[in-house]
Amino acid sequence: MVCVPAPPLLALRGVCKRFGVVQVLTDIELEIRAGEVVALLGDNGAGKSTLVKVISGVAPADTGVIEWEGRTVHIRRPQDARDLGIATVYQDLALCGNLDIVGNLFLGHEIRRLGFLDEVEMERRTRDLLKRLTRGLPDLRSPIVSLSSGQRQTVAVARSLLGDPRILLLDEPTASLGIEQTSEVLDLVDHLRDRGLGVLLISHNMADVKALADRAAVLRLGCNNGFFNVNTASQEEIISSITGAAENVPHRVAHREVDW
């Protein structure tokens, strides 16, 4: 019996994005499977942030095909991405420093009982979720401003997991972190992969990529410039693709363009 591999959770086929007269993304191909970490790499201006906005529905693609578990879907707004099971943690984390951990996790999605905030239930859910993500629980009523950068990153990830997503987009999660805090975040991402989530990791840190990612996709000037198995590719090969010293633009997969 021939085993047919399951389709990827998310697949982009020939995705393009333009802002005015500027073509930002051209014929982008990308696949993310359950239980793997894909690093999205590229120099400044390569199109990484725009690609994340396309996937998260903030800036819908102009043309191309997006597939979810093998079927074509349309992501025109952030709610479409969330409904599919795509969550995003941006680099600025978007946390409210004056609110505590519980307040940040449920901001805009508060649990109410008989018309009043159910603080007990929200705190219980927060504690249960953080227990699955980290070994050392901070005081759940601590204001965000009092937490370390690593703890804030964990809170932002925990908030994104409230909706039980299947894919998590992480934008530079270890930027500006120290060695110990970076280790905590990498452990967290590794734990998410073990839970079966697909993770798209945007990073400039090659050490993090080599330590954590399964595959790497390189963008250059808004185009694909190489796909790598991180376990077998050398750091020099990947960096050459990022800088343009090696032009590794893959063969374009035939696709049907769809105007959205």
From TrEMBL:
UniProt keyword ATP-binding present: yes
Cited InterPro entries: AAA+_ATPase, ABC_carbohydrate_import_ATPase, ABC_transporter-like_ATP-bd, P-loop_NTPase
Lineage: Bacteria, Bacillati, Actinomycetota, Actinomycetes, Kitasatosporales
Superkingdom to which the source organism belongs: Bacteria
A Pfam family it matches: ABC_tran
ABC transporter domain segment(s): 10-246
UniProt cross-references to PANTHER family, sorted A to Z: CARBOHYDRATE TRANSPORT ATP-BINDING PROTEIN MG119-RELATED, SUGAR ABC TRANSPORTER ATP-BINDING PROTEIN
Keywords of this entry: ATP-binding, Nucleotide-binding
Protein's recorded name: Sugar ABC transporter ATP-binding protein
SUPFAM superfamilies for this protein: P-loop containing nucleoside triphosphate hydrolases
Molecular function via GO: ATP binding; ATP hydrolysis activity
Gene3D superfamilies given in the database record: P-loop containing nucleotide triphosphate hydrolases
